[in-house]
Amino acid sequence: ELAVVSNAKENSLTDSDVRDAILKRSPSERLGLSFKSDVTSDDFPIITEVVDNSPAGREGTLQPGDEIVAVGESSTSGLSHTEVVALFLSQEGDIHMKVRFNPDKVHIILRLGVCVCGLRFA
Known about the structure:
Layout: E1 19-23, E2 33-36, E3 46-50, H1 55-59, E4 66-71, E5 74-75, H2 81-90, E6 95-101, H3 106-111
């Protein structure tokens, strides 16, 4: 079992806050999510957008503000955006993710102009 490990000060959530998400997709289909990574810390990437009628949208539980804790069996803590994209690309078939909502990160999503309810500010 993958343990949630991060040295970030505000990252005080526990393993019990982590949930599984499986993105079911066809080989040529885009995932339908956007995320932001902070390479200056050990934080996890944060989902900033989930596109309706995409694998991420059809999964049903992913939302802006969710942290991507792992892709497959690999932790995303402290990885650059490029490294996380590479993790997604390395997955064959359905993509298994571990995610969690971190209320301490809502300010980041709001600063990016994304409402936590999934609507974009104009």
